[in-house]
Amino acid sequence: MTTDNSPVNAPVNERGERLITHLRHVDLAVPDYDKQLHFYTEMWGLSPEVTDEGIAFLAAEGSPEQYSVRLRRADEKRLDLISFGAATAGDVDAMAQRLSSAGIRLVAEPDTLQTPGGGYGFRFFDNDGRTVEISSDVAVRQHRRIEEGESIPVKLSHVVINAPNPEATVAFYEQHLSFALSDTLWSPHMGEVMWFMRTNPAHHSLAIARCPHVSLHHASFEMRGIDEYMRGSGRLMRAGVEKVWGPGRHLAGNNTFTYFLDPHGNTIEYTTELEELDEDTWHPHLYDFSDPEVTDQWGTANPMNEFVAKQSFNDPDRGVFVAPPV
After folding, report:
1. Residue 6 banded pLDDT, cuts 50, 70, 90
2. For the chain, which terminal residue's Cβ has fewer other Cβ atoms within 10 angstroms, N or C?
3. d(CA 240, CA 238)
4. What interhelical angle do 89-101 and 166-177 show, nearest 10?
5. Cβ(37)–Cβ(204) below 8 Å
């Protein structure tokens, strides 16, 4: 089954291109900062730039982005923000003007960024109260090719968010940010439960899941290839990191997956081979995720059960409509 995915009044620049180009980073507030910092660097494989203020900027070695994860020491666990890139400062201004004109609350007007790499950007609240950042002109980080057998992330692949009214959240990202629908998951008992959305030919850089509350579903990191993905998954399992689901290969996106829990219960994923789409010819599918081959084409992952579903719900986000302090 397919469905129409035409964005309504899509925000594009004078070149006819989307104003948002790609995913930059995901920022987390964490109560046990030292434990999380150790996990994401020593276990997960990110490279740290640490400040004296209890903030760490963690880079993926294969990515030109200054950082893929920001950790901030805080009393409560929350998703601080999700950051997306834009091509030019003019596109940033156009996006801010568009959102403001639509009555969407800006957290900060476009200005010079004070984070690594600088750049120009602004923040706003989406319809669920998440803080979202849009930026351009961030300096490129010195990065490198990940070598064969090296089981560390190449880059941040995608972020999945939970929403109590996901249809409204999907419409928000389509209409205001020009995300396009790639595929949808549904079941005969639950109806539609997850929407995969893209802002470039990658099958999804954002997905939206049905959940009783606003929260982070998971953040996913791209590995060099199948071998490196399996080596990384195995390294974490041998180390006793709690595995939620996998290893396997999804049908929507055709990407591999192994999901783990970080020390504060955020689900994070190793993946590889996420599908690249021909956007001119692509038509979204409606996949029945009660079919085992939809959730895992290989049949190697543990079954999708209540434990997997519960972990993906995460804790309710305490940062809704509250901008992070930095």
Report:
1. very low
2. N
3. 5
4. 130
5. no
Q: Tell me how far CA of residue 72 lies from CA of 29, 44, 54, in angstroms.
A: 5, 17, 6
What average pLDDT does the segment 100-114 reach?
A: 97
Short-list 259, 192, 246, CA closest to 219 = 259
Do 272 and 224 meet the contact criterion of CB atoms below 8 Å apart? yes
Residue linked to tokens 């519960």: 310
191-245: pLDDT as tens digits: 999 999 999 999 999 999 999 999 999 999 999 999 999 999 999 999 999 999 9
Q: How far is CA 136 from CA 148, 175, 296, in A?
A: 32, 21, 37
Contact 122, 134 (CB under 8 A): yes
Q: What is the pTM of this model?
A: 0.94
Q: Which CATH architecture has domain 20-136?
A: Roll (3.10)
Spell out the domain ranges in the chain.
20-136, 155-313
- For 155-313, CATH number out of 3.30.390.50, 3.40.50.1970, 2.30.29.80, 3.10.180.10 equals 3.10.180.10
- Contacts of 239 by beta carbon, 8 Å cutoff, 6+ apart: 43
Would you state the structure tokens that stand for residue 58, as one six-digit string? 């963690």
Consecutive H or E run containing 95: helix 89-101
Do the two domains 20-136 and 155-313 of this chain adopt the same fold? yes
Provide DSSP, 39-66.
IIIIIS-PEEEE-TTSEEEEE-TT-SSS
